[in-house]
Every structure is written in C-alpha cells, then in structure tokens.
Amino acid sequence: MTTDVLIIGSGGAGLSAALSAKEQGADVIVACKSLPNNAQTCMAQGGINASFDINEIDTHISDTLRSSHGLGSEQMTRTMCENSAIAIEWLASIGVPFSLDEKDNLAKRFMGGASQKRTYYAQDYTGLKILHTLYDNCLKNGVIFKNERLLLNLIVQDKTVQGATFLDITTGEIEAIYAKSVVIATGGYSTVYHGFTTNGIGSTGDGIASIIRAGGVASDLEFVQFHPTALKKSSILVSEAARGEGGYLVNSEGERFVNELAPRDEVARAITREINNGKGVFLDLRHLRREKLTELLPQEMKLCRLHEGIDMATELIPIKPAAHYTMGGIEVNDSLETRDIKGCFAVGECSNAHVHGANRLGGNSLLEIIALGRMAGINASKFEPKTTAKNQEQLLKDKHFISGVYNFTNQINFYEKREFLGKILYHNAGVIRNEIGLKGVLAAVRQMQKEFTFMGISDKSKDNNTNLVEFIEFGNTLEVVEMLLVGALHRTESRGAHYREDFNSENETFRSHSMFWKEDGVLCASFEEAK
Amino acid sequence: MIKIKRFDRKKEPNSVTMEYPITEGLNLLALFYKLKSTLDPSLSFTGVCRSGVCGSCSVMVNGKPTLACSYTPKSGDLIEPLDYHPVKRDLIVDKTKALHTLNQAQTWIHKTNNIPRDTQNLHRIERQSNCILCSSCFASCPVMAVNSDFLGPFALTRALRYTTDSLELQPLDTLTAIQQNGVWDCTLCGECTAVCPQGIDPKMDIMNMRSKSVQNGFDDPTLANMSFGFDFTQGF
Ligand SMILES: Cc1cc2nc3c(=O)[nH]c(=O)nc-3n(C[C@H](O)[C@H](O)[C@H](O)COP(=O)(O)OP(=O)(O)OC[C@H]3O[C@@H](n4cnc5c(N)ncnc54)[C@H](O)[C@@H]3O)c2cc1C
Ligand code: SF4
Ligand code: SF4
Question: A6, B46, B99, B228: most buried, per Cβ within 10 A?
C-alpha cells in the first residue's frame, strides 16, 4: 500500500493534519488502532483556547510561557497563539457547533492559569464535537481510513522515513504502508500510569516508542501533568468546575487542607501529601444541594453514581490525583519535523513542540492539535523524498517478531506486571518524586524489560487478538517509562509538573530539555539548553 | 454470575455461552478488563475512554444495546455482541458497514455560506451533535432485519443535524441522499430513541426529516403516488 502522506492516529491532531494535507492535493491515509471516533480527543470537555487581537495574543503567549516554567519556546508558542483565531474560525466554518453567548458570539470561559477569558467550548462536549466534525469532513474529502491498525515500527532508511508497519488487528497480518511522508499523531502516554490516569485505555506512547526504535529523539518525558480530582476507584476525571462552583477538598478527618482554587500542581501535591499521611481525601459538594448540583454538574453527578456508586448531593466523593496530560514527547523542530528522521512529522500530545514546557495550560492542547495539526499536514504534503525506495527489511523483521511473540513462554502474566508498574510509578514517579523511589522503579522496569520474553500471550489466535495488542502496548510502555524515569532521576530540581521533594526548587542549570535516543539498542540521555 | 456469548470463527462450535463471576463495584467494561487480565486473556471486546464518550463499548445486555462502561452488571445478565453487525470475535463487531452510512447519507456541510449560526439554530442541532457513534440505535432497529441497506437511525439523525445547520447552503444534497433506504423506510417504532445513551431522539429527527423532504418537493412514498407539487427551491 502506498500513499503521499501517511497519518498515524485519528485524534484531533491526526484528522486536522489529514484535512490540510488533502487540501494541498495530497493523497492521504489515516491509520489508527481503533475506530476514528474512538480517539481520546473525544474526552476533552473544558474547551479550546484562542486569541483574536494583538493584546489577547500577547497575554496568551505570556500565560503559556509562564506556565511552561522556562521550557516553552517563544517562537513555537507565538506560532500556536497567532494561529489560534484562524484555528477556531476554521473549525466553526466546517461545522463545529460552538456554544454561543447571549449576543450570538462564540461563548468563552476562564480556565485555570489564564489571565483572560479565552477558552471556547461546545457545551460539555468540546472534544467530542471537534473530533466528529473533523471526521465528517474527512469522509467528505475522501481521506482513506485504515482502522484497527496497530503501528509497530517506522520504516526508515538513510535517516528518511518511508512509511510504517502495522498489525492489522482484524486479520492478524503484518503490513507496510509506504508514503512520501509520515505524520505521527498517536497521542500521549498517561496510561503508563495504569489504574491511575484520567486517560483512555490506549494512551501508551506507542508513537514515541516507535520513534526511539527508529533512531529518532524524544524529549522532556518526565513532565506529566496530574489532575487533582479523579475518582478514587476508576480515576475518571471530575472536572475543575466542581471546585470552581465552590466544592471543598477535605481529608478523612473532615478538615480542609488547601485552597481549592490554587494551581493544579499545587492542589495535586497537597492532596498527595494527605494521602501519603494515610488519610483519605474527598471532594465535598453536599453544601451546594441537589437542585444546584443537578443544574450545574449533571455529567459529574452521573459519573459519580456510575463509577463510584456515590450520590454527590448526600455523600463525600473519594478522589485522588491522576495522570492527565503528558508534556514530553517526540522531539520536533519548528516545522514539526522529527529530529534525525527526515520526512517524519509529529504533532499533538505525542510530540514535544515546546509549547507546553514543564506544565500545560488548560485549553492549550486542543488548540495545539488543531493549529499545529494543520501545519503538520501542510509541511508533510510539501516534503519531497529524494528516492521513493521501499525498504522491505522492516516488514520482514516485524513479521518475524510477531510470530516470535506467539512462541514467547508466557510464564509471567504481563497484566500483573502492568498493574504493578502503574502502581509503583504512580507512588514513586507521580506527583511527588525522590531519588530512592525513582531508582527503585527504574530497577523494576529494567527487570521487566529483561523478563519481557518470559511474558507473552496466552491467546494464540491470529485474528482480532487484543491480548497481542495489549502485550505490544506494554512493550511500548516499558520503553517510554524508562525514559520518563531517567529524565525524572537526572532532573534534580522541581519545575512545573515535575516535583522532587529532595530538590524542591527550580534550578537555572536545568532550564533545559532532557533528550532521549538509542544507540545500539541502549538508551542515551542528555540535557540540552532551552532556547 | 453473568453469561457472555463467545464467538470464534475458527472454533467448533463457533459460538458458546460462558459464565463469569461478577465483581462488586465494577461496571461491565471494567469487569471485562478484569476478566481478561486475571481469568481469560482471550476474552475479546472493545473499550477506550471508560466514560461514555468514545462509543466503542456497546454490547447487547439481555437483548438491549448498552454501553458496557455505563452499566452495572447484575447476576443472570446475558451479554452478546451488537445485533445487525457482523461479529468478528466474541463481543467485537465489524462497524464498517454501519459507519459507511455516513458516506451514503453525506452527513457533512457541502457548501458553507460563512454566516455564523444564531442561538436558535444552534439549539436545533446541539443534541444531535452529541452523538458518539456507538451504533446502539443501529443495533436496536428492527428494519435492519428486513432491509440491511437501510441507512439506520444515527446517519439520519446526523443528516438532520447538517441539513438544519444554517451554515449549509446545499441541504438538498443530503436530503436527496436519504430518500432511498432512508427516512421513508423507518417504521417510527422508537426503539432507537429508547436505547440512545446520549438522550438523542432519532425517531423524532426522522419525522422531521420527512417533513423537510416533503417541503423540498420529495415524494412521500407512504402516500403512494401523491404529488404535492412543491417547488424545489422553497422551504429552507
Ligand atoms: C478527560 C480529559 C479531558 C481533557 N480536557 C481537555 C480540555 O478541556 N481542553 C484541552 O485543551 N485538552 C483537554 N484534554 C487533553 C486533550 O484532549 C488531548 O491532549 C488531545 O485530545 C490529544 O489529541 P491527539 O490528537 O494528540 O491524540 P488522541 O486524541 O489521543 O489520538 C491518538 C490517536 O492515535 C491512535 N494511536 C495511538 N497509538 C497507536 C498505534 N500504535 N497505532 C495506530 N494508532 C495509534 C489512537 O487510536 C488515536 O486515534 C483532556 C484530556 C482528557 C483525558
Ligand atoms: S424509529 Fe425508525 S430508525 Fe428508529 S429503530 Fe424504529 S425503525 Fe429504526
Ligand atoms: S444516536 Fe445515540 S445510540 Fe445512535 S449512535 Fe448516536 S449516540 Fe449512539
């Protein structure tokens, strides 16, 4: 199979790139591991940031850079903010039903960390409506979808991408899709914190792992944003609105212990300290009374009932912080091309375009996936490779690898390891970190890497094998987590979302990006000064 | 215990119903994941967001299409794959054909006039655009049993959403696309409305699409051979 632009991932980033590449006249294939509308972009409720005049753009840039704690690139942040109005207008013109204010203008609201109202929304369903509108437009414009294809590896020769290999989950066949250029848009890696994330099931950093295996570079993986209020059992997000409307945070002794409206990372740390001291933490909304809650937080009420068995009008809601957004990712330049692999672009949560730095501002990730997603599609469609060679080697290797997996001994249940890893990561490489804890988890991860071939799958069927899919995702998880831990260990300071209790302040020497790559299969890391 | 209907094309017999223990406090999707990781890794199903917006986890629970992530299993429940979708394996179904109805119905804006919507217009399309494409309505629709080419409820709801949108200059394109195997083939039984997890009312939307069709000069085949002689350019 051959195309001009191959896009991997059907979230907001992938579909925006697909549409803009198509507008340039390119043939486009979008491959994703589930169905297009299943991408996690559908989960975003809050909204998307945009700025319409010079003054708004300037404050948007300065808010974003402040939140990035020295790691945001002024150039890229400017590019994103300056293109934000165009992004919203484009979305509105292709049909996204944004909410309106009483004057029929697009309605906007405040989000945490913003000094101006700039978050546009479509009811509680901003991400859902954006994603589905993009999908409808892809159908209209003849974008070809290859659904239920799991990215295995990039096909790279002479440091230039030629396409990628996939497991066709339905048939179990391994196939190659060749392309003049590739856009990776596979989303973030919060789900490596298995059991402790607000994200969906498949956010395992597959694209990042594939870049590392292909000789590319990833960066800043230690920066993970934790949302303070996720439901205790299921880690489902309870939106910030619950505190915004006047909800209290209390511990099991019934005491309030933090200003509920302080920035996300501060609140998350305060909650984690309570939990580490053996206390439970609860969101208390009872004083708002049923009538008001039904009107203000209907979705939240439903989710609490369903996932926690809790009636928030009469009961305390048990909560915990959970991994929510990953700032690190595939290192790209200002054209979104990946470092060291030509013709390969990365955009969205999988990438590190240096627009979020050490902490993301709410509403900026939806903006990034649209504004930069469109840019990635244009740049990818303009890329002309020197040759149109189709290297078969990677395909053969991956066929060999997958058939090998069927013969792995399966003496160790990787599901148990996945759960264990999620737990120790959360407790030692989560909201509050220290050297001993990080070293311990790193040792455990390296052990799991050694044991990988003793794990394996017990479902030996070829077609529709989700046991195999999850096993490959776990392999990617181990790859990504190793980088996350190495970064967190070597960053002996606290900055943005990365908090070390043994080095609890910002250190100017670390105003730099952690960089990760592999040489002869061995992980290498260094710091590179931020621009 | 719950019963899950398993299906494997390569096994003989290819369909069996198996019993599994319930874990208190887990919704059905969480239970599937638990069973898969602790008891039987070959149990096959889909599920992504866990919170009712990605539309990937609908299954039949006691004959009714239901989002697994939003349902608390009860002893004796029978879980089966979605009706009217080819079964791939266990609870995984092939949604290709169902999703293709969106291409057939051309549910998008064909040509935009770039005049922003007003609140009134927005309210008329807001509920329809909450659709998560879970295909529950499709699986509940009795017409599928007799006419597998029927476009089905979610495509028709989406057709209403786009033809009603004041941004759309060419609503006739979508309207034309839903005359055959579309709005007139529905029996208005309301099954789709009863199962929609998003509170969407495809039956009502289909009724509205019928009036819209007639207003735009399409014949109502349920009133055999009666022509209303409307002008094609009127009505929007
Ligand atoms: C609960 C929640 C609420 C949020 N609210 C907001 C908000 O209000 N505002 C905001 O700005 N941001 C919000 N975010 C963040 C934002 O939604 C995401 O950062 C953004 O949607 C990511 O989009 P994406 O296109 O990069 O990736 P995704 O939407 O995650 O899409 C990734 C795609 O890649 C595919 N993929 C992954 N791996 C593979 C593979 N191996 N092979 C093939 N395909 C693969 C997936 O199938 C999917 O199609 C929220 C996030 C969550 C979890
Ligand atoms: S109302 Fe029409 S579309 Fe809905 S289930 Fe009944 S026949 Fe199908
Ligand atoms: S209309 Fe309702 S039931 Fe049908 S696909 Fe959409 S959300 Fe699901």
Answer: A6
